[in-house]
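Revision sheet: structure tokens.
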Amino acid sequence: MPRFRSRRSIYFNLALLLLLAVVWCVSYAGPVLQSFFKEEHLFYGRVSYAAIPSVFGGSNVPFLDKTFFKINGDDSATFVLYASEEMLDSMSDWFNFAAINVGDVPLEISAVRLSGNRYIVKSMASTYGELDWETLAEYQLFYSLIVLGIIGVCSVGFLIFFILAIRNRP
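Predicted:
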């Protein structure tokens, strides 16, 4: 039966795995976390393009299930809506991104600018209904705290296994 001659490689591999988990969580939750500290902008328009990423679309996994859309035919600005399936279902009474007449509904969108052309939606409203700031903020804040906890646990685990790998003799 082959055995590992050193636990050092096991510790390094576990440390790298936990580091990968930290980087992945930060890359997916980072935009939402940044949006809490930036100024909101108000936009008016009609949706001209909407897309749900095919990898995680419809999975109802927080921060992975998101909707990208553009308004008024403007290709230079992309809006990202982080919302749960439940929120999108209640929103479908007055607005549905997959509807044929999606471009007929005028919207008021409050969003935070992250980069030159990327905006995180904080609220949406039309004459038929609204997805208010409190609902989205509660959802985003709750799952941001969970992700921050995961990042913290994985970071501590990374440090522990990295120190064990360095201190362990080959």
